[in-house]
Amino acid sequence: MDHKLFDIEGLVEFTPRVFADDRGYFLETFSMKWFEAVGIQPNFVQDNQSVSKKGVLRGLHFQKPPFAQGKLVRVATGKALDVAVDIRKNSPTYGQHVTCLLDSEKQNVFYIPEGFAHGFVALEEGTTFLYKCTNFYASATEGGLLWSDPALNIDWGLTDPLVSPKDEILPLLQDFDSPF
Ligand SMILES: Cc1cn([C@H]2C[C@H](O)[C@@H](COP(=O)(O)OP(=O)(O)O[C@H]3O[C@H](C)C(=O)[C@H](O)[C@H]3O)O2)c(=O)[nH]c1=O
Fold first, then answer.
1. Alpha helices of the chain — where are they, by DSSP H?
2. Among 17, 114, 131, 160, fewest CB within 10 Å belongs to which?
């Protein structure tokens, strides 16, 4: 298991070992040992799955405390550019983001702690996006940021993604009062 830390505190990319043989391949897609190695103890309580057409952009979303979610995200098939925006008010990297290319060939896994707005764009048709969450779904606590906000300066790699109407009306960072 290799892991990579980022300039924004709390984000971790894990790259499990893939065991290929003439039958196919095997890998461990999650282990608490990964987190013990980096001193994090997330308590995952819910697994999610979404499948997206190529060009679909979901996000940028979060749940407000006390229902904030840490997420461990990966793609089982396809490819996605994953984005985590730091919305922790007292963070020196507030408003900054990290991108992580999730690839079902590399099988890398990205951990995003509470205090981040999360989104991704599917780069291949039928990208299957899987993630573990550290809190249950609580729709009344959902919030978000507009994916295309120039102040976030996110390069999604495409100019005309397929975005849901509810995501197109999310607030700009300048109008946003973070609950974190
Ligand atoms: C998130 C969620 C949704 N739902 C239901 C509610 C809706 O009827 C339907 C689709 O939900 P939504 O349009 O919010 O799905 P996404 O746009 O993929 O939302 C996700 O997108 C970004 C990438 C995230 O990080 C979050 O996990 C989540 O906000 O699933 C549930 O029943 N449970 C859930 O945990």
1. 32-37, 165-168
2. 160
| Whether the CB of 132 sits within 6 Å of ligand 1 | no
Query: Which of 97, 111, 118, 131 is an active site residue?
Result: 131
How many whole angstroms from 120 Cα to the centroid of ligand 1? Answer: 12
Which of 51, 53, 73 is closest to 61 using CA atoms?
A: 73
Is the pTM here over 0.90, yes or no? yes
What is the total count of domains within the chain?
A: 1
Identify the pLDDT of residue 159: 84
CATH value at residue 43:
2.60.120.10
What's the rounded Cα separation, in Å, for the pair 26 and 56?
29
Cis amide leading into 66 (omega within 30): yes
Cis preceding-peptide flag for 173 (omega within 30 of 0): no
Give the ipTM of the model, two decimals please.
0.97
Q: Using the mean position of ligand 1's atoms as its centre, give its distance from the Cα of residue 53 in Å.
A: 16
